[in-house]
Amino acid sequence: VKLRLAEVDGLVLDEQFTANGVDLLIALGDAHLAPLQQQLADLSRGRILLEAR
């Protein structure tokens, strides 16, 4: 995930480990949101979701 984020010049602002995995607060340009979401969904069989704040 961090590698894919770095490829679009994104930043990890916060990282919280939970019982279900990890929650990342990230910053990236709006133009990269949809392509990154698709890449991560493909890699994780749909288990990784991006939520805009």
Structural domain tally: 1
- Could you tell me the radius of gyration in angstroms? 11 Å
- The portion of residues forming beta strands comes to 25-35%
**Topology as a string of helices (H) and strands (E):** HEEH
Shape verdict = globular
Mean pLDDT: 93
N-end to C-end Cα span: 19 Å
Low-pLDDT residue spans: none
- Total strand segments: 2
Biggest sheet features: 2 strands, antiparallel
Residues in helices, as a percent range: 25-40%
Strand line-up across the major sheet: 1-2
Q: What does the model show?
A:
By secondary structure, this protein is of the alpha+beta class. It is 38% helix and 28% strand. It has one domain (2-43). It is built from two helices and two strands. It has a two-stranded antiparallel sheet.
Which labels suit this protein?
2 helices, 2 strands, 53 residues, alpha+beta, two-stranded antiparallel sheet, 38% helix
List the helices and strands and how they pair.
Blueprint: H1 2-7, E1 11-18, E2 21-27, H2 30-43
Antiparallel strand pairs: 1-2
In short:
Helices cover 38% and strands 28% of the residues. The protein has 53 residues and is α+β, with helices and mostly antiparallel strands.
